[in-house]
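Annex B. Sample input.
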Amino acid sequence: MDQSWTALLQNRLRSQGYEHRVVNASISGDTTEGGAARISAALENFSPELVILELGGNDGLRGIPPETMKGNLQNIIEASRATGASVIMLGIRIPTNYGQRYTTAFEAVYRDLAEQLQVPWIEFFMEGVALDEELMQADGIHPNAKAQPILLDSAWPVVSKALSDRLKD
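Annex B, continued. Sample output.
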């Protein structure tokens, strides 16, 4: 049985009377470049009302320049909106392996895009999870099954607001 936060999101939506179908189009280990390359096909195949953008962590782990990451995320946001989809972002933080300057620039990508493009967002999607060894896999990077309900609760306020805003339109 799928215990991912996206599967739990589907259950919560159903239990609250939403008829939306959650499609997790992510690929483990993917970067924003991969997401940008796949977004057009995903938009065409699924015609989403809401795109939940949770990408960038692997960019940070690979030291990809934050400006490159920002451009990729901006392309995804703009392509999504061009189809009429709403977009939210779930921000990520990274360890300071590449130094404070890189880490600060990386984290600013989400804030800057949220402000520039008026995208609802969460500053740190893994708040309360990332530093808790009991909620992380052995690699110390990925959340385990126990963390998934916490991740859903982290994302839920911005997801539910985006859906209710769409209903008002």
